[in-house]
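User: Hey, my collaborator sent me this sequence without any context and asked if I could get a structure. I don't really work with proteins. Can you help?
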Amino acid sequence: MKIKYTFSWLLVACFFISLGATAQKKDKKKKGKDAQVTTQTQQSPPPKTIASVIGKCKASNGLFNLYQDEKDGSVYMLIKKEQIGKEFIYFSFTTDGVLEGGNYRGNFRDNKVFTIKRYYDRIEFININTSFYFDPNNALSKAADANIGNAIMLSEKIEVEDKEKGEILIKADKVFLGEDVSPIKPNYPPTYQGFRLGNLNRDKTKYGGIRNYPKNTDVVVEYTYDNPAPQGATSDAVVDNRFITIKSQHSLIEMPQNDFISTFDDPRVGYFTTQVTDLTSKSSTNFRDFVHKWNLKKKNPSAALSEPVEPIVFWIEKTTPVEFRETIKKAGLAWNESFEKAGFKNAVEIKVQPDTATWDAGDIRYNVLRWTSSPQPPFGGYGPSFVNPRTGQILGADIMLEYTFIINSMRSNKIFETAALNNNLLEQEQEFAKYHKNHQFCSLGHHMQVHNVFGLSAVQLLGGTDDDIKKYTEEQIYYLVLHEMGHTLGLNHNMKATQLHSPDNIHNEEITKKVGLQGSVMDYPLPNVALDREKQGQYYTTKPGPYDNWAIEFAYGTLSDANAEKQRLERVLARSTEPELTFGNDADDMRSSFSGIDPRVMIYDQSSDMIRYGSERMKMVDNLLPKLKENHLKNFQNQSYDELLIRYFALTAQKFNSANAISRYIGGVYVDRGFVGQKGATQPYTPVSTADQKRAMKILTEQVFAPDAMKAPVDLYNYLQQQRRGFNFFGRGEDPRINERVLAMYGNILTHLLSPVTQQRILNSEHYGNGYKLADMMGDLTDALFKADLGGNVNTFRQNLQIEYIGRLLAIAGLDRLSFYVYPAQSVALYELNKIKRMLKATTGGDAATKAHREHIVYKIEKAQK
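Assistant: No problem. I've predicted the 3D structure and written it out in structure-token form, which is a compact way to encode the shape of the chain:
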């Protein structure tokens, strides 16, 4: 028993000894862990703060403080407490690019209002919809956000914040380096076959510069697009079409807080606008569209004429050729005459950027007349502006001028076929216009470039002196600057302004220098060259016209008292029916056969009687063509014939453009936009008189469609040689495409006369006064194209013209395809086809080629009728 108890006590003792050892071991482990935790706590980094993140960054302070990491180039943006929920203006433009990429230097791109909001741990950049208005006194305003969407452009995670100051730091790379805020790559339609930008390469895309100021933050980004298998041709401006870089500037702008007074748009005067629809108005025209204008305020509000508190200042960029600076400056300052009508003296100032200036022309704080010389110029001149979308206030503008406009160089890959024809320029305009909102695209420089080759050639061929050449050159530059400056002041095109003077007065400088050669400088006129040098007046107007003065008075003569301002606007707008104030914008003009109805609203016209003026211009071309070769052989010794070819294109283009403008009077309808009860207003729609329509058809018959109307001297064709450069004739030959060019000219006129829009308008206007019925017009057209050579030989120009006409008649009548023409037009076309068939079958004369041609026509008609 004793042994048993002793053994038990030994077991108990061992158990407690073991517990003690275990406890000591655990205690040591615990002490070790505590020590480890203490050490780790001492070694952990301090909490992340804004200062710690931006410590190794290059700071750029301004409206939005930006910090660029000096190691990897990434950028952080600081957002202050008071900037959350506040509205800002976003603006972007291309600082450099290539035409094939849909971007070029000076191309204004995007202009909108955005705000910044916080959503938990993220920051959102939201594009605000500014297109609608709700009267705050209307109960409907409580539902102002119903079914109207804003757009969250991007959402970025907060990197760090200072809760005490309310400051937030985010990474800004998504804001600037991506395309969420503003797409750079065009949105190509499915049927587009040309060159396309590839995908954005985010590794190659980088910052090109940061400029920061108290009221705006500017960030330049170089976007690179990769396409390993590009399709579509590119010019030499693109060194490798797999990789395209486009430089664009993003500007974040503080919303102006000032006493700017908006002016609402009126259809009788032409300004660029920001469109706003009043959803609480009962009117069918519930528009509150703001015109775009600068914020001019008088230093002395009570004075009839006062200098502004802040004038509109433009800088002539230091890259501008010295010899043009004085003319450019005078042209810009000429707008001060218009502003005097609105009560402002010296409203416009023009300065020259010093050669020592360090500020960049892309700095949006400066309005700059900029200069470029491009391999494929997208413009001759271009005057865009950007605005506050909430009010219409213009915040900045540039004028881009292209050197090739001055040297009158025609650079075209299609120079042999249809160079200098309106249809090519129209296609190019439509392509460029896709990238311009509010129709702020201007191609005047392109058009003037072609016209000026004609103008200078005509002056020389008619015996003009060096002083005459100098006068022409100065007036063309003057006009271009006046026009583009007008755009920067808010004015859009007025394609009706050439109606001011009659053909008898248009060369009377006593009249034109007093009131202007045109009603407005915002038109695309023909150069005013006289066949008789003794009668030569101004080539281009050198002052704003009466319409320009009136339009500036309308927008800038604002009064602070609302009732007084309303009465002032009524007085000003009541004058819109005065002949010299007539107006029609791009949407009204008839350059395309599918838009516009008033032939007075047209490009490439001049005078109040374009039918007569155009006829005289075509006679001038016929007079000048025989002089071309001799003049070139005399004045271009030891040079190629390239200049001769260019002049031939320019002269024949004048004939086509004049004929094109004349053709618009056939089926035309005059438009009057005067309001009900307005003094001088007529009925809104008045068809062109039967006499004028027939006069236009007679001119086309005799000077365009006649057998020899389009012929140049035979010995001239032998010299129309383009200078070869390397292998540029490879695969296409170099012989002049005479027939193809003439057919293209014919085709454009036929396109207008035979378009479904024109034919339908002729039929409809018969119900409200048109006396030149469709059957009459088509009968006259058929006679013009067939009767003159019915008994003899048909030359190749007329063969092409007649076959082209037959093909179009078959399409109208629906004999070879489904017709989209109205039924009466189909009937008339069928009648003309049968008439032509009878005429040709009854004709036996002509050489073998003529007989083959006529049999061809009869065969086409009879085959289609089976």
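In plain terms: Residues 1-44 form one domain. You can pass these tokens on to your collaborator as they are.
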